[in-house]
Amino acid sequence: MEYKDYYRILGVERSATQADIKKAFRKLARQCHPDACPGDATAEGRFKEINEAYEVLGDAEKRKKYDELGSRWKDFEQWQRAGGQQTSWPFGWSPAGGGYGQPGGAQYRTVTPEELEQLFGGGGGGASPFSDFFSYFFGGGQPQAGRPGRRASSRQAGRAGQDVEQPVQITLEEAYHGTQRLLEFQEPDGSRRRLEVKIPAGVDSGSRIRLPGKGGRGMGGGAAGNLYLVVQVAAHPQFERKGDDLVLPVALDLYTALLGGEVDVPTLKGTTLKLKVPPETQNGRKFTLRGQGMPRLKAPAERGDLVVTVSVRLPTGLSEEERELYQQLAGLRRGERH
To answer: pTM score, two decimals?
Structure first.
């Protein structure tokens, strides 16, 4: 049985973090995926190796067992070549130490089949997409004839399908009202699958929508993986989103700013509100319209606020009469100051 160096397969150091391992897996999986390399048997084999390595290293508990096993692998090889039996392993599980026995004072003992089941997990025989190494130590596959292994189970081990992430870009209006998307996927066997998904109101950039059982297909009766929609909300030409609040700049003419009045304010709902502007409103003043912002994702009946920032627009193209009147106003203001 060949020892599988999963770290080498994924191209990471043994000190790599779980995030590093996940990043490396995604990069390699994209390169070798059957959809990207149709008809390439080498890429298909590489893709299976990458999946197997991530199946172990991507799981903290399996990775711990794999790391502990690796330090004692040569002992296992020697024992295997000597025709060792499953109930007389050359290293034992040490509950006190939390790992395999190490040289220098460790006491070895016989490991029972039941303890092996607890250590490496149960499973069944039958065809498996994984190597003998994986099936023997992690997947519970049935060893080939003449090789030591644990007792075969009458159940066939199923493998859960992979989780899939799908980026989805929507408009701010769609995030406000909620929307739908029709997605199309190509399966490894070449078949295509269409899926209509609902995107709830209130989502923001970075929101992840989980669709259970809509990811990769399981194998050997295993459950399908999950589909995660990763939402990206496009920038809006008028509104700026800040959490559940919306910020909207509104131009205000000089006369309304000085004397007061009303100004029309559009909303994402598609309606128009009348905002009362008090006399002598300064440039940059903010008005808050309660409950006119984005719906809250987990409580769509509640909404954020719409913050209107006024920008006073100065008149241009003055006539001679207007210029004279403004000069009179300027004189009045200077006179008041003196």
So the answer is: 0.52
